[in-house]
Write a structure and sequence with these properties.
37% of the residues are buried. With 263 residues, this protein is mostly helical. It has 12 helices and 2 strands, in the order ααββαααααααααα. The radius of gyration is 19 Å and the shape is globular.
Length: 263
Amino acid sequence: MKKYWRHAALAIQETIAYRVSYLVNMSSTVITYLVIFLIWAAVYSGRESVGGYVWAEMKTYLIVSLFMSALVSGSSEYRISRQIRSGNIAVELLRPVDYQKASLAITLGNSLSEGVLVSLACLLFAIFSGKGVSPPDALAWVGFLAAVIIAFATKFLLIYVFGLFCFWTTSMMGISWLRKSVTDFFSGALIPLGLFPLWLRNVADYMPFRSIVWVPASAFTGRLAGADLARTLATGFVWVVALWFLGKLVWSRAMFRVTIQGG
């Protein structure tokens, strides 16, 4: 495990070294959510609730959504794409490490270093937006933390699998936009899944995306609790295992498509 922890430590150092780039990307995410926040504030103008969500709960939901969306950035997608296009993927193939586990370690390192600024941004949102809601007891906090771990794993694996498609396309832009748009919509990052039409909500329930935002946000606000939360977390864990092996499968197929461009 030491070699993977070393990958995580190097990722933290890289984030600190290129902090200007990270600050720009983080600022873009915060501004995007500020716009979404203001839109929802306008929707709630003169209303006590929308779709069963009172404004205090919706504010909290949006803050947690910001935290979960920014915690795992799309840097993994672009890192894999750069390695493929530059030919540096050949070096990765020679390393005595599992590429998927190494990518997970790097993403974890990035998230740990980026999490400080993400938490600060969420805290500022919470202070300036006024009173919200929070988990009522220690058990609810445990459920929320478990949801965060599953959300991290789910988003990493989705980014990883989509990133490997660059072996076939050698371009990441379109794939990244597709992944981000689908993830933002079906994770509940833009609109809580509870406000979806029933048929669309049923579709979202069969997808892994809801574990990224809707589940941790609902666990934090108390909308998901007890047995319902336990079942949802169990389903999310099954998706994590399935996506992990899907990543292994796509990687094995990608090895037959390796084309070194430069390097």
